[in-house]
Amino acid sequence: MKSLKFILTLAGVLATQLAFANSSLERGHQLFEANCAVCHGATGGMDMSKRLAPPIIAVKMHYKKKLKDKESFIAAVAAWVAKPDKDKSLMRGAIHKFNLMPPLTISPEDIEQVATYMYEGKLDRPEGFDEHMKNKHGGKGKKGGCGGKKH
């Protein structure tokens, strides 16, 4: 009987944590849509003349390639969004192509939620993304990285 209570309690705790994680990712997604998608969204596909910034899936791939754990990823994204600095960029080719991102007026907590969504969430792939990765960067885009080539 004690083990059944323990299992039910543990299941309840895990369900609560899963619900919180899902709501946190949803909040990060909402914040991304409200603050970032106009420049980093999937609209415009991979036609760089129609884009204001690299698609967020490409940003994620570059950051995950260079930062191996979630905490480093979130800290780097948060630092970048709070104060973009070309000398600290992990995507110099993107700055060359699109210019330096302007700083955003978004709270540090909200930035962390967006960064968590970027790290853990299912991000939209612009039309032609996988083909772009294969043709321009020697990879398929699904495994991450750009083959070390600049944008």
Helix content: 55-70%
* CATH fold title: Cytochrome Bc1 Complex, Chain D, domain 2
Number of domains: 1
Average per-residue pLDDT, rounded, comes to 83
Poorly predicted ranges: 13-20, 143-151
Strand residue percentage: under 5%
By CATH reckoning, the class would read Mainly Alpha
Termini, distance in Å? 61 Å
CATH-derived architecture: Orthogonal Bundle
**Count of helical stretches:** 7
Number of distinct beta strands = 0
Structural class of the helices, strands and pairings?
Answer: mainly alpha
* Large-scale geometry: globular
Give the SSE string. Answer: HHHHHHH
Radius of gyration from the alpha-carbon trace, in angstroms? 18 Å
Report the biggest beta sheet as strand number plus sense, adding barrel if it closes.
Answer: none
Could you describe the 3D structure shown?
The chain is globular. It is 60% helix and 0% strand. Residues 13-20 and 143-151 have low confidence and may be disordered. The chain has a single domain, classed as Cytochrome Bc1 Complex, Chain D, domain 2, CATH 1.10.760. With 151 residues, it is an all-alpha fold. The longest helix has 34 residues, at 2-35. The protein is built from seven helices and no strands.
